[in-house]
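We give this protein:

***
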Amino acid sequence: FGAFAQQDDPEPAQLDPKAQERINNLRIAYLTEKLNLTTEQAEKFWPVYREFAEHRRSELMKLRAAQQEIDPKNPDPEKQKRVVDLGLTVKQNILNLEKDYSDRLLKVISAEQMINLRRAENDFRDMLQQRRLNQQRRENFRERNQRLQQRN
């Protein structure tokens, strides 16, 4: 669960609903395979996992909203201090969520699967990030080629 404290996924609002759904489906398939979940385990695991992810996302959105209220051109030290404090509160809240949901998930999956969940979640995030980087490179390459073709 330690990997969940990191936020490498883009804001859901940044992705179109179909892309978000594809990513969620890939995540489900990937984690189910990596954890070697039985059908019975998967039926109990995914509702708890989704609930955790939603609570975690909610906490992170509080922090993002506060960060966006800071005007970089006119920083307010008091507002910045509140954001720092909120960041620590959010981290603590996420840690508390991880403890609670770890206990709940350990009733569904083994400790070994829980350890593998951390690893698989990190691997999935890395895979998504690599795909995004590759997509950006392809887009940059296409744009560069189009500019070159227009010059010629």
